C-alpha cells in the first residue's frame, strides 16, 4: 500500500511523520536539530529518500542539511565528517555560503535595496526561507532567501550560486521589506516547461522566468495594495504565497496581504476570487492534486490580529477556483482557538483520496484524508510550525 511522509519544520526542530495510505495511524520521529529554527524541509520528487532542510539560528547562522535515507540520518553536504562547526560553533563548509552577486553584468546595481524608511540599504543574507528541489534531478535545488534572492545548487547542496538576473532585472533596487522582512518564500517549478519558474517575495510581488532563471519579469498586473503609494504598482505588493495546479500549470493561485487571487494565464493577469470568505487575509493557499479548481485557504482575522476569526479554526475550500467557498470545520476547534497558519504550513498529497495537511503556530499538525471533509490532529504539542510538506510514497 502507498504511504505518506510529512516533513514538519518548527521553531525548535524538525519532525518526520509517517503513515500508510489510510492515514489513520502515525509514527512521529524524535526532533531532528532540536533547538534550531527549521524554516523549511522538502523532499526530491525523483528520489523520495533525498530530503533537504534549512536549519538556522540567530547565533550560529544558516546550515543546509541533507538526508539520503528519508530523514533517518542527516549531513551537511560538502562538509567533511567531524568538521561541521568551527571553534565558535559557526557552521563550516561551502554548503552554508550564500554570497550575493555584486557584479554589474545584469545592467542594474546589485548592492542596495529600499529599506523601511525609503532609504537604500545593503543586501544582507539572513536565512533560507524555502527549498525547492528540481522536478527531474535530485542534486538540483533552488533556495529562496532573505534578503530576497534566488540561489541554486546543482551538486546536492555542496555549493550555491545566485541567479542574479532576478535582482538585476531592473526593479530590484526598489524592493522593500514587509513587516516580516524581505523574503523570497515561494518557488514554483512548471512541470510542463522546465525553463519556467515562478517566485514570490514579501513585499515586492510575484515574478516569472521563461529561460531557466536567467531573466525575469514582474507578474503583478491586477494586484491592488492599499498600503503602497501606487496601489497598482509594478512591484511592491506583499504576496504571502503562490500555488500552482500541476495538471494545468498556467493556473496559479495567490494569497496576498488581503485578497485571494487567481491567474488563468501563468501570471500575466490576476483577478480577485475572495468571494464569500469571512476575511481575505491569510498566509497559506494550496491546490487539490487532481482537481485544478479545488483550492484551500485558512482565513486569518487581520494583518494586526493573526488568528482565526471568532477564535474558530476553519479551512475554506472552493471547488470553483475561488469566489464560492465552503467552510470545513469537522474535527477542528471551534472555540478559543487563536493560532496562526504560516505561508509554508500546508501541503497536499497525491493519493487517490487526496490528503490535505496543515500546521499551526500552536504546534498542531492536522490531516484530512478526504480532501478536507474531516480533520484529525496527527500531533498536538510541537513547537510553532513553520512549514509542512508531504511526500507520497510508493
Brief account:
It is built from no helices and 29 strands. The chain has 394 residues and is mostly beta strands.
Could you list some keywords that capture this structure?
mainly beta; 394 residues; 4-stranded antiparallel sheet
Topology of helices and strands:
Blueprint: E1 3-10, E2 13-20, E3 27-28, E4 37-43, E5 51-57, E6 61-67, E7 112-114, E8 120-122, E9 127-133, E10 141-146, E11 149-153, E12 161-162, E13 183-189, E14 197-202, E15 205-209, E16 217-218, E17 239-244, E18 252-256, E19 260-263, E20 271-272, E21 285-287, E22 295-297, E23 315-318, E24 326-328, E25 346-348, E26 356-359, E27 365-368, E28 376-379, E29 385-393
Antiparallel strand pairs: 1-2, 1-29, 2-3, 4-5, 5-6, 7-8, 9-10, 10-11, 11-12, 13-14, 14-15, 15-16, 17-18, 18-19, 19-20, 21-22, 22-23, 23-24, 25-26, 26-27, 27-28
Give an overview of the whole structure.
There is one protein chain. This protein is 0% helix and 35% strand. The strands form eight sheets. A four-stranded antiparallel sheet has the order 3-2-1-29, with no helix packed on it. A four-stranded antiparallel sheet has the order 9-10-11-12, with no helix packed on it.
- Following the backbone from N to C, one meets helices and strands in this order, namely EEEEEEEEEEEEEEEEEEEEEEEEEEEEE
Protein structure class: mainly beta
The major beta sheet can be summarized as: 4 strands, antiparallel
CATH H-level homologous superfamily name: YVTN repeat-like/Quinoprotein amine dehydrogenase
The average pLDDT score comes to 94
Tally of contiguous helical segments: 0
Instruction: Enter the CATH topology name.
Output: Methylamine Dehydrogenase, Chain H
CATH architecture: 7 Propeller
Name of the level-1 CATH class: Mainly Beta
Strand order of the largest sheet: 3-2-1-29
Radius of gyration: 20 Å
Task: Quickly count the domains.
Answer: 1
Helical content class: under 10%
Note poorly predicted spans. none
Amino acid at each position: 500500500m502507498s504511504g505518506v511522509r510529512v516533513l514538519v519544520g518548527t521553531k525548535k526542530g524538525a519532525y518526520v511523520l509517517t503513515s500508510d495510505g489510510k492515514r489513520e495511524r502515525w509514527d512521529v520521529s524524535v526532533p531532528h536539530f532540536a533547538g534550531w529554527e527549521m524554516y523549511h524541509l522538502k523532499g526530491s520528487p525523483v528520489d523520495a529518500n533525498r530530503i533537504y532542510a534549512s536549519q538556522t539560528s540567530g547565533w550560529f547562522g544558516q546550515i543546509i542539511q541533507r538526508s539520503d535515507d528519508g530523514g533517518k540520518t542527516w549531513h551537511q553536504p560538502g562538509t567533511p565528517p567531524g568538521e561541521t562547526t568551527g571553534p565558535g560553533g559557526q557552521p563550516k563548509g561551502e554548503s552554508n555560503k550564500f554570497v550575493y552577486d555584486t557584479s554589474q553584468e545584469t545592467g542594474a546595481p546589485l548592492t542596495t535595496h529600499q529599506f523601511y524608511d525609503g532609504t537604500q540599504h545593503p543586501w544582507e543574507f539572513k536565512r533560507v526561507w524555502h527549498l525547492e528541489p528540481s522536478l527531474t534531478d535530485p542534486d538540483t535545488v533552488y533556495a529562496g532567501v532573505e534578503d530576497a534572492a534566488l540561489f541554486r545548487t546543482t551538486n546536492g547542496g555542496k555549493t550555491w550560486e545566485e541567479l542574479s538576473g532576478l535582482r538585476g532585472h531592473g526593479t530590484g533596487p526598489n524592493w522593500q521589506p514587509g513587516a516580516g522582512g524581505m523574503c523570497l518564500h515561494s518557488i514554483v517549478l512548471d512541470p510542463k516547461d522546465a525553463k519556467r519558474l515562478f517566485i514570490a517575495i514579501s513585499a515586492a510581488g510575484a515574478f516569472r522566468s521563461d529561460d531557466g532563471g536567467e531573466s525575469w519579469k514582474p507578474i503583478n498586473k491586477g494586484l491592488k495594495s492599499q498600503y503602497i503609494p501606487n496601489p497598482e504598482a509594478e512591484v511592491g505588493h506583499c504576496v504571502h504565497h503562490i500555488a500552482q495546479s500541476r495538471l494545468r500549470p498556467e493556473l496559479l493561485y495567490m494569497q496576498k496581504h488581503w485578497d485571494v487571487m487567481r491567474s488563468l494565464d501563468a501570471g500575466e493577469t490576476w483577478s480577485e476570487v475572495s468571494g464569500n470568505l469571512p476575511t481575505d487575509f491569510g498566509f497559506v493557499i494550496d491546490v487539490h492534486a487532481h482537481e485544478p479548481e479545488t483550492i484551500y485557504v485558512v482565513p486569518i482575522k487581520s494583518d494586526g490580529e493573526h488568528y482565526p476569526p471568532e477564535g474558530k479554526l476553519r479551512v475554506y475550500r472552493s471547488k470553483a477556483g475561488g469566489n464560492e467557498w465552503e467552510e470545513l470545520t469537522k474535527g477542528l476547534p471551534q472555540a478559543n482557538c487563536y493560532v496562526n497558519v504560516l505561508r509554508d504550513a500546508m501541503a497536499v498529497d497525491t493519493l487517490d483520496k487526496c490528503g490535505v495537511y496543515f500546521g499551526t503556530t500552536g504546534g498542531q499538525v492536522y490531516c484530512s484524508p478526504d480532501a478536507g471533509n474531516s480533520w484529525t490532529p496527527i500531533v498536538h504539542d510541537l513547537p510553532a510550525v513553520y512549514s509542512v510538506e508531504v511526500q507520497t510514497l510508493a
